[in-house]
Design a protein that fits this description.
This protein is mainly alpha-helical and 366 residues long. The protein contains 13 helices and ten strands. The chain has a domain of 123 residues: Glycosyltransferase, CATH 1.50.10. Helix 9 runs parallel beside helix 11. Strand 3 and strand 4 form a beta hairpin.
Length: 366
C-alpha cells in the first residue's frame, strides 16, 4: 500500500531539542473531535464528487475500504452505503464460471478496466468494513459478504518449504499466485472475531495460522518484520527464515499495522513496539534496524506512523503513551487537516481512524 507522499516531508517540528510541556489528554479531546469531524467531511466531499481516486485514475481498494471502516464506526449510514455498494458491485469476485476466485478482491479499480491482481490487505479491509457495517446498521447481508471475502482471502494460503503463509496476490491474467507475503496481509484478531461469531471452524483455523505467522515474525529488537518469502530457505537450508525485512530495515508504520492486528491475542507484540516508540519519544524515526533497534537514518516519523501508534496505545489502554503521542502528533494532524490538497485519501483515512479511536476511548472512560 502506498502512503501519502507528504508523509516524508511532514517531520515533527519537535523532533529535536527540548520538548514543550505535555497537554493533558482530556484537554486535547475537543481538538481531536474537531479534527475527526473535519476529516470526515473532507473525505465525504471527495467521495461525492469522485475524488477518492489517486492521480493515476484508480480508486485504490485500501483507500475505499479504510474509509468504509471509519464510516461504519461513525454510524454514517449514507456514506457507508455508497462504498458498500461499490464493494459489492465492483470489487468482490463472485462469478459462476470461475468459482476458484470467489471472494477475491482486486487491489485497485478503474471503470472499464479488467483487474490485474487481487490484494490480500485489501480483502481484509473490505471484509472488516462490511462486518462492521453489518453490526452498525443491522445488515446481515453485509456480514455474509464479509465471510465470502474472507473465504477468498483464505484461498491465498499455502505451505511452502514447510512455512504457512498468505500469498500476497493472485494475478488474474496468468492465473498464478505471488510467492511472497507481506505481514500487513494478516489480521488474526479480526479473522478470529468472525470465526467465533459465526462458529466457523475453517475460519478459526485460518485465524490460528495467521496468528502463528505473525508471532514467528518478530525481529530481535521487538518490531515485526515486513516480509515472508519461503523460497529463500533453499539458499539457507540450515537457518530458520520465516520472516525478514530487506537490509534488515523495518518500517514503523508497517510493523505497527501488523501489531495492531494482534492486540487482543498477542498484546505483548504491540507493547514492544510502543515501548520502542516511547524510548525514542521526541526523536522517533520512520525506519529501524531489526537486529539492533537503531534508527536507519534521520527520516523522522510522520503522521502515518503516529496515527498507527495512537491506535495501538488506545487498543492497549496505555494512557501515558497515548498522551505523549497525541502531543507529538497534533501539529502534524492540524497541518494535514488544513492542507487537503497535499494529502491523499489513504493518509486521511489513517488520520480519521486515529481520531475516531481516541474519541471512542475517551467516551469509554467517562
Amino acid at each position: 500500500m502506498a502512503l501519502a507522499t507528504v508523509g516524508a516531508a511532514m517531520a515533527s517540528p519537535q523532533a529535536q531539542g527540548d520538548q514543550p510541556p505535555l497537554i493533558p489528554t482530556n484537554k486535547l479531546i475537543p481538538t481531536i473531535q474537531g479534527l475527526r469531524d473535519h476529516v470526515h467531511q473532507q473525505l465525504l466531499a471527495r467521495l461525492h464528487v469522485g475524488k477518492l481516486v489517486r492521480p493515476d485514475g484508480y480508486l485504490y481498494t485500501v483507500d475505499a475500504a479504510q474509509f468504509m471502516i471509519c464510516l461504519a464506526r461513525l454510524s454514517d449510514a449514507d456514506g457507508y452505503a455508497i462504498l458498500r455498494d461499490h464493494c459489492v458491485k465492483n470489487l468482490i469476485f463472485d462469478h459462476s464460471d470461475d468459482p476458484f476466485t470467489r471472494g477475491f478482491v482486486p487491489w485497485r479499480y478503474k471503470s472499464g478496466e479488467k483487474p490485474d491482481a487481487s490484494g490480500t490487505t485489501e480483502a481484509l479491509r473490505v471484509a472488516k468494513g462490511l462486518w462492521l457495517g453489518a453490526k452498525a446498521f443491522a445488515a446481515p447481508a453485509d456480514a455474509d459478504h464479509a465471510r465470502i471475502v474472507l473465504g477468498g482471502y483464505g484461498q491465498h494460503s499455502t505451505v511452502d518449504q514447510g512455512i504457512w503463509l498468505i500469498r500476497n496476490y493472485f494475478a488474474f491474467g496468468s492465473r498464478s499466485f505471488a510467492t511472497n507475503s507481506f505481514l500487513i496481509d494478516y489480521d488474526p484478531d479480526f479473522v478470529r472475531e468472525v470465526a467465533d461469531a459465526t462458529y466457523d471452524a475453517e475460519l478459526g483455523k485460518l485465524a490460528e495460522n495467521c496468528l502463528k505467522a505473525v508471532r514467528s515474525s518478530v525481529a530481535p529488537c521487538g518490531l515485526l518484520y515486513d516480509l515472508i518469502q519461503p523460497e529463500l530457505a533453499t539458499l539457507f537450508p540450515e537457518l530458520p527464515m520465516p520472516a525478514f525485512s530487506p537490509n534488515d530495515v523495518i518500517s514503523i508504520a508497517n510493523s505497527g499495522a501488523t501489531a495492531l492486528a494482534v492486540t487482543r491475542q498477542s498484546p505483548e507484540l504491540a507493547r514492544k513496539l510502543l515501548q520502542l516508540a516511547m524510548l525514542h519519544d521526541g526523536n522517533l524515526r520512520r525506519y529501524y534496524l531489526g537486529r539492533s533497534g537503531q534508527p536507519v537514518n534521520d527520516a523522522a516519523a510522520a503522521i502515518c506512523e503516529y496515527c498507527i501508534l495512537i491506535r495501538i496505545a488506545v487498543a492497549l489502554d496505555e494512557a501515558s503513551a497515548l498522551n505523549r503521542l497525541l502531543n507529538r502528533a497534533l501539529e502534524q494532524m492540524h497541518w494535514a487537516a488544513d492542507h487537503p490538497e497535499m494529502c491523499d485519501a489513504f493518509l486521511y483515512t489513517e488520520l480519521l481512524a486515529a481520531t475516531i479511536a481516541v474519541v471512542k476511548w475517551n467516551e469509554g472512560r467517562a
